[in-house]
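R.M. (postdoc): so does anyone remember the format we settled on? I'll just put the structure tokens first.
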């Protein structure tokens, strides 16, 4: 391995270790999500400085060499008092990290089990493995063993092979080449359906918590499935399918009717994601308010008889709000006690994101 490759590998290991050590900070901060690309995110890291020793006599007095006063120099440096300068300060290093690597770090830190997909979707991928032999092709794909074998067979068949002088000279017709035989293979696919209460009680901070949690959930699920589709549903008294930007920024007022979101979720599943071909993950975030106990009964009925049987797992995250009662989680916990396909968590603040993710994904469903 070249020296530069060794240095690069060591640097990546240092970066990986720093990310793993500070994972909680990165999960709860939206800074790196603002620099998210298609396959990479840019993560800010403090510059890494190696310690240096300076040899020589130290005849100056200062802190550590006798009595000292506030502002005295350390190791012969200038006094701590002075005017503002023009020199730049310490910069932050930005490092690109692949989403696949982030998923591995998240899985290791939270001890997440790999998911066993329950179905194969109709979407197929083409294999790029060399699986065939051809009589024509580029010299770079020449199959030497097969070419030699063909030449040997030809010489034996024509009587030109001499066992005492076994020299095999392939001719053009003996050449054989590797080639890719296209093969379509079914790939397991998943659909994540995010639902969120956007009534007046769900403020900016609550939506930011949901955004951060959704990013890390997506990152993990994309590492487990070749094909991941994401749908976004917002609801107050009525539910709508929206794009990602609208999902995290829309704010409305009015009542909250959670069943409207569940009915729309079920419609999406039935129309676009048949459970025999898709691994389905409905995830709902709310502050726990619903407009009536009758509507909560309707929600439980939809979950028990339709949504949960169709899904790998149903997850409900209750984000703490100054205005939310938190009653809906209590009702779900009571109705689905002992059902490990229904996971509910309390997310009191940003520090609750990691425990919530572990609860949602820790079953390996």
């Amino acid at each position: 391995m070249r020296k530069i490759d060794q240095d690069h590998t060591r640097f990546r290991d240092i970066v990986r270790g720093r990310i793993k050590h500070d994972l909680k900070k990165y999960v709860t901060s939206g800074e790196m999500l603002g620099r998210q690309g298609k396959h990479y995110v840019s993560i800010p890291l403090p510059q890494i400085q190696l310690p240096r020793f300076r040899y020589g006599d130290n005849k100056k007095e200062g802190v550590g060499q006798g009595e000292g006063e506030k502002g005295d120099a350390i190791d012969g440096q200038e006094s701590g008092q002075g005017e503002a300068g023009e020199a730049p300060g310490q910069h932050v290093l930005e490092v690109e990290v692949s989403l696949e690597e982030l998923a591995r770090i998240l899985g290791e830190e939270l001890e997440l089990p790999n998911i066993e997909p329950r179905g194969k979707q109709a979407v197929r991928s083409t294999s790029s493995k060399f699986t065939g032999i051809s009589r024509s092709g580029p010299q770079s794909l020449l199959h030497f063993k097969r070419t030699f074998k063909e030449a040997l067979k030809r010489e034996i068949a024509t009587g030109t092979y001499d066992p005492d002088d076994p020299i095999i000279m392939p001719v053009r017709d003996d050449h054989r080449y590797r080639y890719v035989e296209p093969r379509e293979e079914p790939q397991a696919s998943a659909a994540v359906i995010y639902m969120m209460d956007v009534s007046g009680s769900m403020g900016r901070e609550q939506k930011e918590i949901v955004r951060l949690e959704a990013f890390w959930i997506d990152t993990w699920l994309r590492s487990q499935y070749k094909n991941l589709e994401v749908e976004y549903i917002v609801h107050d008294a009525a539910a709508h399918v929206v794009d990602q930007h609208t999902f995290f920024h829309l704010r409305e007022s009015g009542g909250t009717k959670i069943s409207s979101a569940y009915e729309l979720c079920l419609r999406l599943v039935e129309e676009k994601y048949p459970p025999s071909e898709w691994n389905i993950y409905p995830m709902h975030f709310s502050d726990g308010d619903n407009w009536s106990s009758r509507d909560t009964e309707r929600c439980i009925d939809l979950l028990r008889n339709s949504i949960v049987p169709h899904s790998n797992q149903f997850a409900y995250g209750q984000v703490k709000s100054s205005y939310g009662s938190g009653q809906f989680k209590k009702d779900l916990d009571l109705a689905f006690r002992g059902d490990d396909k229904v996971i509910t968590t309390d997310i009191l603040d940003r520090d609750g994101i990691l425990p919530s993710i572990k609860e949602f994904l820790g079953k390996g469903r």
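R.M.: ...and that's the designed sequence above, right after the tokens. Also worth knowing: The chain is about 35% helix and 20% strand. Confidence is low (pLDDT under 50) at residues 47-51.
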